[in-house]
Structure formats: C-alpha cells, structure tokens
Amino acid sequence: MRFDKQTIFVTGGAGFIGSAVIRHLLADTNASVVNIDKLTYAGSLSTLPGAPGNPRYAFEKQCICDGPGLRRLFEKYQPDAVMHLAAESHVDRSIDGPAEFIKTNIVGTFTLLQECLRHWRGLSADKRDRFRLLHVSTDEVFGSLGAEGLFTETTPYAPNSPYSASKASSDHLVRAWRETYELPTVVTNCSNNYGPYQFPEKLIPHMIVRGLAEQSLPVYGDGKQIRDWLYVEDHASALTLVLERGRAGETYNIGGSNERTNLHVVERICDVLDRLVPGTRGPRRNLISFVADRPGHDRRYAIDATKISRELGWRAREDFESGIEKTIHWFCQNRSWWQEIIDHGYDGSRVGLNTTAQV
Ligand code: NAD
Ligand code: DAU
What we know:
Elements: E1 7-11, H1 16-28, E2 32-37, E3 57-61, H2 67-77, E4 81-84, H3 91-96, H4 99-121, H5 125-130, E5 132-138, H6 162-181, E6 185-190, E7 193-194, H7 203-212, E8 217-220, E9 226-228, E10 230-231, H8 232-245, E11 251-254, E12 259-261, H9 262-276, E13 288-291, H10 306-312, H11 320-333, H12 335-343
Helix pairs in contact: 1-8, 2-4, 4-6, 7-9, 7-11, 9-11
The chain binds nicotinamide-adenine-dinucleotide and 2'deoxy-thymidine-5'-diphospho-alpha-D-glucose.
Residues 89-92, 138-140, 191-192, 202-203, 206, 218-220, 225, 227, 262, 294, 301 line the site of 2'deoxy-thymidine-5'-diphospho-alpha-D-glucose.
C-alpha cells in the first residue's frame, strides 16, 4: 500500500485543495496525515467530515509563520514528508490587502523551510534520502500568455499580482533551500482548480451560489480572459504522485488542458443550473453583468503538462464538462456547507478594485 507507515504533514489541509489531498491520502493510501492549518477565513474543518474518526488523521491548529510552534510539531510527529499548501490564495484580496500574502506565503514558507531543514538534518541517512518537501504553487507565477503558447517548467517567472508575486517569492525560496542546503524539495505549478469545498469567493463557486439565488453574475471586463481548469481531485492525485515519485529538485506543471473563457464558464454554469434548479425569473444567462475589470488582470493561462504525464504517468480523469457537472451537483446538494460560510459573514461583495488598498 502507498505510503505505508509514513507520516505526512499537509499544511493548509483545511482549505479547498489541501482538504482534497487529505481525503485522497486517507482513502487511497496508508499514510498517517497531520493537518497543519491556522483556520483563516478560508479554512474550515467542515471540509473534512470523515477525517476526525480516522486513527491515521490528526489536526494541529498552527500558523506556519510560528517557528517554535512548527518545531514542536516536527518533534512530536517526526514526518517523512511535507506537502505545503497553506497560503493566502485569492488574487482580489491580495490587491486590497497584500500584507497577509507577504506574511503567510513568503515568511510562512521561509519559516517552514527552516524547520524542515532542522528536522531533515536530524534524520538517519536512509530517512534523509527519502524525505520530501512538496511545495504547491501556481501557474500565475509565469504571468500572462498571449493567444498562443503554453506555460512549461522553463517559462520565465513574471508575476503580476501581489498574490502571484508572493507565490513566486516562495518558489524561489524553496529553490534556494534545495540548491544551498540540499533540502530535497519538489515544486508543482498548477492551473485553476474547481470542485467541492471551494470557498465561494472564487469564480466557479461564486457563480453557482449567486446563480442559485438568482443574483447578478459579475463578469470582470469583457469575460474573454482564459483559464485552464482542473478538477480538484485530479490535482490531489497529481500531488500524491509527485510526492511519491517526483525527483528532488524538479518542478512539475499540472493542468487539465481545459482552456475556457470566463464568459463560457459562467454561461455553462447558468445552463446547468437552469436544468437542475429552474429559476423563477427566466434563463440565468440574463443575470450576467459585465463589471469593472480586475487591476492587472492576466489575460490567459494554459499549462503544458507533458512532463508530469511522461515522467510520472499522470492524467486528469475529468474534463471540464464532466467536472463542472459534478461540481454544480455538489454545491446544490451541500447547501448547508456554503450557507454556513455566508451565515458567518461572507457576503460576496466585490473586492480587489484597488480602492481600499492598505498602504
Ligand atoms: P484556500 O485559500 O482554499 O486554503 C488555504 C488554507 O491555508 C486554508 O485552510 C487556511 O486556513 C490555511 N492558511 C492560510 N494561512 C495560513 C497560515 N499562516 N498558517 C497555516 N495555515 C494557513 O487555498 P487553495 O485554493 O486550497 O490553495 C492551496 C494551495 O494551492 C495554495 O498554496 C495555492 O497558492 C495553491 N494553488 C491553488 C490553486 C487554485 O486554483 N485554488 C491553483 C494552483 C495552486
Ligand atoms: O491559476 C491558478 C490560480 O487560480 C490560483 O493560484 C489561485 O489561488 C486561484 O484563486 C485562481 O486565481 P484566479 O484569479 O484565476 O481565480 P478567480 O477564481 O479569482 O478568477 C478566475 C477568473 O474569473 C479571473 O479571470 C477573474 C474572473 N472573475 C472572478 C470572479 C470571482 C470574474 O470575472 N468574476 C468574478 O466574480
């Protein structure tokens, strides 16, 4: 069985992708998992309903910027690997409030690297060889594509938002800890994820939740920006494969080859919702409204995932059509999960217009 007798730290395990990784590790491998999460607005243990009763699961409420706190966890659990997903993840929020992004994404990653290094240096030679820190990053570090071309592992970094700049910084730190201290790290850069338990500030759940309430559906700019969509469970399976078989010092791009314009995505959501939950005010496409563009809005992202496919045999199971159906069904059937987020104060207001930036 995969990861037999191994303990894996997952930072950010109460978030959208981290929780999918933990559900996958608990269901499909023998790993013991320690979920390390600060539980920010974006993190909730409700993303892991089946985990608490599992003897292979533990939760530690912990900020990754707190070195002594992390050290205590390394000493307590002696992990064989770390999957690092904890981050501030929303581009619009990074425009209004970049400070938290600098803290968690840069200082937090630095702090984790230092504690990983301390732990790794104390391991036996055999365990040192097998130890991995998998740093989970984004394709946004590469900036924006024109009409042609794909991001590869050698595309130069050109981040455009405070979020992507903070992620790019963290990628560079990870690279430096590998080159300078020989810490066995692997980096992944993935495209846009969607699926169950995504916080409703992100495009797809935002539109589903608003569409169900028959509220206006705000499309930024002309809606012709392109994202390359990947179903979150496919990302989780790619990450576990990279942890298991990825070569230390390498980076792997992950993406589903599912490029869609934002407008296409929103129209598709409208049509599926109309079929599943007919509205009272006619077709939901009528709710689409074009609103002010995001400052510094990247036009197009698209991933070349040849390397992970060739070297590790990974392939996405879902295409956009099957994944969006599953996702919309999930949000319709799990209203209490996102209603709780709204009840706790998330009101879906537009942020990131650079009118209230903290300077
Ligand atoms: P998310 O915002 O849903 O979850 C982030 C989690 O990190 C939350 O549980 C939060 O509580 C936790 N966290 C935040 N600050 C912390 C801190 N200081 N200490 C400990 N925990 C903290 O994010 P996500 O969409 O699941 O993204 C996870 C990772 O994947 C991020 O690193 C992100 O950059 C990367 N990524 C995301 C996407 C995407 O489409 N969502 C695509 C590629 C890469
Ligand atoms: O590419 C990977 C990245 O994808 C991740 O690193 C980020 O963590 C993740 O948030 C995501 O970033 P995006 O900015 O691409 O995702 P978001 O869901 O915020 O927006 C997707 C696109 O939809 C983007 O072009 C902006 C647009 N949009 C978004 C919202 C919330 C709208 O047009 N209307 C909206 O209401």
